[in-house]
Design a protein that fits this description.
The complex is a heterodimer of chains A (23) and B (352). Chain A is 35% helix and 0% strand. With 23 residues, chain A is mostly helical. In chain B, the strands form five sheets. An eight-stranded mixed beta sheet of chain B has the order 16-15-14-13-17-18-19-20, with no helix packed on it. Classes of the chains: A mainly alpha (23), B mainly beta (352).
């Protein structure tokens, strides 16, 4: 197992998920 | 765990942990007639100076102890509870002279704030929440998160205290439609909050907006996981879980703590470390605490064991003292000490 199995990684995941999630 | 994952689990040899890494600093006894249920370290202000104090909780009384010069402790405040027993202490960070407690019989029914009125130093308690409370956690920036109710009728609330512990503000988080078991703050990300749920999901909230950002399903090997600590690093979330309901397996014995890595963008997760007991130790996880990368657990055998999550193995084992099993273990928030308690009110403080 390696982190490659986890899919593409984003350093700005928190901001990106916040902009995608319903308010 | 799959066969592949077996290869990255580091089971220590018997001589690789060092019992000497825990040194006794001081001890005291809380002379209460009821069972000791929790212990915590807090900053408390007296006569203009902030002191690192110890809070002890028995079923019917919570006490604040201040340090004396001679490595002894003096009881300075007590709060009494005659109707509903105390279940746990809930420290709230960044607010002085206030501690919260959860009260109930098996399940939490009330959360109360304990404080002293500034004029006469008299102990006061204020009811903050009541109902079918499933989880509660004190957060940084004087915040307290709690979930009330189950499934679709669940409310997740964040209460913010003023600096003096007085007036407060309340905000709702979007509920996940599944019952929350535990909360964990993400170290270094003050707007991120995690929760574990009864259906083995980890949920991620934005505390500033109240949005539910993601649900991540974790391995079904262990049910009812408790999340102790979370860290964000290089776009990944590292989460420390314990599994009080896990059954022993032949390969690993009883799993105590597990380090998971989660990609929050894809909701994929991977186990990177499973902390098990060193050879010669037996028992299951009873309760535990994690501070930074050090995890401590009380085992059903009455022993305390400590793991370094960076080294990946057990670093200290503390057998019962004076023939009495350990029942409580907490890391101090005011220094690097380990607080270890026994049911009869004995508290031992160790330097790690």
């Amino acid at each position: 197992c390696s982190t490659a199995d986890l899919g593409p990684i984003s350093l700005n995941w928190f901001e990106e998920l916040s902009s995608e999630a319903p308010p | 765990y799959s066969t592949e994952q077996n290869e990255i689990v580091d089971l220590p040899a018997c001589d690789s942990w060092n019992p000497g890494s825990l040194q006794l600093v001081s001890k005291f006894k809380n002379p209460s007639s009821s069972c000791s249920v929790d212990v915590s370290a807090v900053w408390w202000e007296r006569a203009g100076a902030k002191e690192p104090c110890i809070i002890t909780a028995c079923e019917d009384v919570v006490s604040l102890w201040k340090p004396l010069d001679t490595l002894q402790w003096e009881k300075v405040h007590t709060w009494h509870f005659t109707e509903v027993p105390v279940l746990q202490i809930v420290p709230v960070h960044d607010v002085y002279n206030l501690i919260c407690v959860a009260l109930g019989n098996l399940e939490i029914r009330e959360i109360r704030a304990l404080l002293c009125s500034s004029g006469d130093e008299n102990e006061k308690q204020v009811l903050l929440k009541s109902g079918n409370i499933k989880a509660v956690l004190g957060l940084t920036k004087r915040r307290l998160v709690s979930s009330i109710g189950t499934f679709c009728s669940q409310q997740v609330q964040v209460l913010t205290f003023a600096e003096d512990g007085g007036s407060k503000d309340e905000q709702l988080l979007m509920p996940p439609d599944e019952t929350i078991l535990t909360f964990a703050e993400v170290q270094g990300m003050q707007d991120a909050l995690l929760g574990t749920t009864t259906v083995n999901n980890i949920v991620i909230w934005n505390l500033r907006t109240g949005q539910l950002l993601k649900k991540v399903h974790i391995d079904d090997s262990y049910q009812a996981s408790i999340c102790h600590r979370a860290y964000s690093e290089m776009g990944l979330l590292f989460v420390v879980l314990s599994h009080p309901c896990a059954k022993e397996s032949q390969a690993f014995g009883s799993p105590m703590f597990q380090l998971l890595v989660i990609n929050p963008k894809t909701a994929q997760s991977l186990g990177v470390l499973l902390c098990c007991l060193p050879e010669g130790q037996a028992g299951r996880f009873l309760e535990g605490d994690v501070k930074d990368h050090i995890a401590a657990a009380v085992l059903t055998s009455g022993t305390i064991a400590v793991w370094d999550l960076l080294l990946g193995h057990c670093t200290a084992v503390l057998p019962p003292v004076s023939g009495q099993n350990w029942s409580l273990v907490k890391w101090s928030d005011t220094d690097s000490h380990l607080l270890a308690g026994q049911k009869d009110g004995n508290i031992f403080i160790y330097r790690y």
